[in-house]
From TrEMBL:
Pfam families: CMD. Signal peptide: none annotated. The lineage of its organism: Bacteria, Bacillati, Actinomycetota, Actinomycetes, Kitasatosporales. Transmembrane segments: none annotated. It comes from the Bacteria. InterPro entries: AhpD-like, AhpD_core, CMD-like. One of its GO terms (molecular function) is peroxiredoxin activity. Residues 14-96 form the Carboxymuconolactone decarboxylase-like domain. This is Carboxymuconolactone decarboxylase family protein.
């Protein structure tokens, strides 16, 4: 499979992606737990079908010590016993934030209140920005059919 666009060869994309990369680094440095960030990134990318992001985030999470069982169960987190209540709240918010067109109402009050029980305002802000950021990156990759499988841990850091 070959990508439709080479973002790194485009002056416009290069300028824009510099800011995307900076936003990604800022999120990594936030107080939102790193494990939660990777789980959310995986779930958003699963919903959107972004192979490139699934490749990247599954490898980054594994390199950071995430277990194969938890990585395998992200898609079925509601039925899995390996996630904390806080992680479940983040995954629920990520799903509703990603499926805004499907739900028609965005993130529901119950999902928001549950997330707010587990995360402070700064962490909630980071979570919302992360979900939005991942949805944007997923779309960049999907529209241009970026291939997956060759990502190396730390490649974009």
């Amino acid at each position: 499979m070959e990508a439709r666009l080479n973002y790194f060869a485009s002056p416009t994309a290069g300028k824009a992606l510099k800011h995307f990369m900076s936003a990604g680094r800022t999120l990594k440095e936030s107080t939102l737990p790193a494990a939660t960030q990777e789980l959310v990134a995986l779930r958003v990318s699963q919903i959107n079908g972004c192979a490139g992001c699934l490749d990247m985030h599954s490898k980054e999470a594994a390199a950071a010590g995430e277990t194969p069982v938890r990585l395998s169960l992200v898609a079925a987190w509601r039925e899995a016993t390996v996630f904390t209540d806080a992680e479940r709240a983040a995954l629920a918010l990520a799903e509703e934030g990603t499926r805004v067109a499907d739900a028609g109402t965005g993130v529901g009050d119950e999902v928001w209140a549950n997330a707010a029980k587990h995360y402070d305002e700064e962490q909630l802000t980071s979570l919302v920005v992360l979900v939005s950021f991942l949805n944007a990156v997923n779309r960049l990759n999907i529209i241009s059919r970026q291939p997956a499988g060759d990502y190396q841990v730390g490649q974009f850091h």
